[in-house]
Give the backbone structure.
Amino acid sequence: MGKHFSFIHCADLHLGEPFGDVRLGGSGPWNEQISKSTFKAFEKVVDAAIDNRVDAILISGDVYNSDHHSLAAQMAFARELYRAAENGIETFIVHGNHDPEEAWRADIPLPDMVHIFSSSEVQALPLMKDGEKAATIYGISYKTRHVGTDLAQGFHHNPEDGFAIGMLHTDVGSASGNYAPCTIEELKNSGIDYWALGHIHTRKTLSVKPYVVYPGNIQGLNISEIGPRGCYLVDVGAYGTVTLKFIESDVIRWMDMVIDISNLKQIGELITEISRRRAGLKELTGRPSMVRIVLTGSGPLHEMVSSDDGQEYILQTLNEKEQFRFLFAYFIKIDDNTRPDINLKERRQIPDIVGTYLRTDDIWNDLPAEEKKKALRKIVEEQPEIMRYSKLVKSLNDDILVRAFRKAELLGAEMLTEEEANNEDH
């Protein structure tokens, strides 16, 4: 029988990293909240560690971005680690690709209870509780920004070490790459009881026997990182049973607001509906938020909301005073998934150029899913103007291509319909 203990598992702090796509213009409370969001998020992580009386905090890489670890960021980080140490909490850290050992700068001394793993080989460090070893923590840091080798191969659990925790910043499931690629099978077969991973910003549990866990980042940094962000409270029983509890730490939340325009006829109605939903959003999250508006449906507003000028007008109107509020919901961008007010089913049956266009489009649209994706990729790759960007095309996943061609179908039908109407007017 082992010893009961608990720890906080977090990763990808990115302290001091600015938000993507956000311009801090003017003045107002939101400037300070956004600029300090990553620091406040880490404070909440340490608060959770103290409140839950854990024995350790595990940070699985990317404390800073190597080009943003200012003196202020280092001081904020050190301050929180001293606060943890004063409460008897040890901290274990591995470097990741954004804070590799060669770029790490520690101008501010850290407490003796902070342990940073070497990049030369996997180390094994004891986690002590009440003078006894509760677990052994294995870890290895990145030496440079890019690590193409499989670092997981260096983890070898000694059964005499008791409960084993592995700390690694890695891209699990990649056969190759720059971020210590490894397979889930080798992690599961390593003898490690809990893998405390970092690098992927979305939390996910890849396995429960043993636990292989990404906690995600502690604060969303851009619109691709929507929803709650935080850390895991991990409780390990005397017989090695593991219980996970997710704890939110984000101080500003990135969110989507989906609006169907089908029943809206005036732009003022759309702005009123978004404003009404914004009030509920603030009440729901209880924190400031950065919001992407996702517009769907078809109707008379399609033309305006699909134009750059129309979107800029909507955003400016909605955000005019929001940056001066402490509990703000700031609209960062609009994704237009609306459709022209055209009955495509009926339009396909008319024997004219628009109908012919839509029926031709059906030839590939009716293909089985995999054949369709293959055909679309071939069409794109064979376009002369796109061939020079072959690397970019290959990086696009199939779902993005399908959505793009679906939008092209609608746009083409709309343009041809407008051309017909113009010709009739003349």
